[in-house]
Amino acid sequence: AQKVTQAQTEISVVEKEDVTLDCVYETRDTTYYLFWYKQPPSGELVFLIRRNSFDEQNEISGRYSWNFQKSTSSFNFTITASQVVDSAVYFCALSEANAGGTSYGKLTFGQGTILTVHP
Amino acid sequence: EAGVTQSPTHLIKTRGQQATLRCSPISGHTSVYWYQQALGLGLQFLLWYDEGEERNRGNFPPRFSGRQFPNYSSELNVNALELEDSALYLCASSVGQWGQETQYFGPGTRLLVL
């Protein structure tokens, strides 16, 4: 069965600090998709990034970067020079797929990491 | 481009009643997904609809049901409401019918059961 673990329940940093949010996943499928979402206090989940299991390239988007390592089943998210606006709950999610790449439509989410950035 | 919209934003019901939640996907998206976010339980997958058909269902009792209309909007119905149904219900949409496309979420409906 698929499972996503975000071991850090809460992280508190001061503005301009770098912060890494950990995500470890479990799946028996060879084809799967990984996601990060941000949930601000308003409640809406905001899509940040998607990664396919066969693409281990790390990605950087502005102050955000993602490190995908299949060997350790991890998909960690780093925010560089954090800002107060980064304060939110961050979710890592996994979507499994069959050999043909067709998914089951279900995202399995981790429990989320509450990030608080203090001015 | 308009995002996923959901109505109502808040809903208060009493135990035993029925609740109906609505979702309009992003234009061009044919798949709609429903999730429940209850305190302490995290985000749980409820249902996936595509082209009017239920494609997958999460581990929820049959009193959670829904449908998708020809215009791809969707309705989630919760019958015989229980106190533990109080949660934020999130709807998401995606293009295509293979289920692996990125899901874009709406603002949610907060359901409170008294």
Write down the overall geometry of chain B.
Answer: globular
Shape of chain A, please? Answer: globular
SS-derived structural category of chain B: mainly beta
Distance between the amino and carboxyl termini of chain A: 41 Å
Write down the secondary-structure element order of chain A.
EEEEEEEEEEEE
Q: Count the strands of chain B?
A: 11
Quickly list its features.
heterodimer; A: 119 residues; mainly beta; 6-stranded mixed sheet; 4-stranded antiparallel sheet; 51% strand; globular; B: 114 residues; 11 strands; 53% strand
Could you give the topology of this structure?
The complex is a heterodimer of chains A (119) and B (114).
Chain A: E1 3-5, E2 10-14, E3 19-21, E4 24-26, E5 32-39, E6 46-52, E7 59-61, E8 64-69, E9 74-79, E10 88-96, E11 108-109, E12 113-118
Parallel strand pairs in A: 2-12
Antiparallel strand pairs in A: 1-4, 3-9, 5-6, 5-10, 7-8, 8-9, 10-11, 10-12
Chain B: E1 5-7, E2 10-13, E3 19-24, E4 31-38, E5 42-50, E6 53-57, E7 64-68, E8 74-78, E9 87-94, E10 104-105, E11 109-113
